[in-house]
Amino acid sequence: MDMSQTVPAAEFARNFGRYKMQAQREAVPVSSNGTLAGYFVAPQEYEELLRLRGMRRRFLTAELSDEEVDQIASSRMDPRHDHLNVLVDPK
């Protein structure tokens, strides 16, 4: 991030209303002591972030059943992608 585009924290505090309006259009980068401290965003942007985070799914390989491990191990790529094997085949 180009620090010249950030708003110093003191300026942000003095002119909060201005930056609150700006945050409705775009994220406002706020700096403190010359480093990026965070972004001020509109409520709907933050809610969208939370919604997207909630959609993430993680899988631990230790949680797979033996059947799932066997299915993955025996799976094969569609022949249309054979040309990509050169990227993963040992030389």
Topology, pairings included?
Elements: E1 7-8, H1 9-14, H2 16-23, E2 28-32, E3 35-40, H3 43-55, H4 66-74
Parallel strand pairs: 1-2
Antiparallel strand pairs: 2-3
Structure characterization notes:
- The mean pLDDT is 92.
- This protein starts with 6 loop residues before the first strand and ends in a 17-residue tail after the last helix.
- A hairpin with a 2-residue loop joins strand 2 (28-32) and strand 3.
- A three-stranded mixed beta sheet has the order 1-2-3.
- The protein has helices spanning 9-14, 16-23, 43-55, 66-74; strands at 7-8, 28-32, 35-40.
- The chain is α+β, with helices and mostly antiparallel strands.
- The chain has a single domain, classed as 3-Layer(aba) Sandwich (YefM-like fold), CATH 3.40.1620.
Features:
3-stranded mixed sheet; 4 helices; 91 residues; alpha+beta
Name the poorly predicted regions. none
Distance between the termini: 40 Å
Number of alpha- plus pi-helical segments: 4
The overall pLDDT average reads 92
Give the radius of gyration: 24 Å
Task: Estimate percent helicity.
Answer: 25-40%
What structural class results from the helix and strand content? Answer: alpha+beta
State the CATH superfamily name: YefM-like domain
Give the number of domains. 1
Cross-sheet strand order for the largest sheet: 1-2-3
Hey, roughly how much beta strand do the residues contain? 5-15%
The H-and-E topology, N to C, reads as EHHEEHH
- Total beta-strand segments: 3
Biggest sheet statistics: 3 strands, mixed
- Assigned CATH architecture: 3-Layer(aba) Sandwich
Overall geometry comes to elongated
The CATH class is identified as Alpha Beta
- CATH topology (level 3) name: YefM-like fold
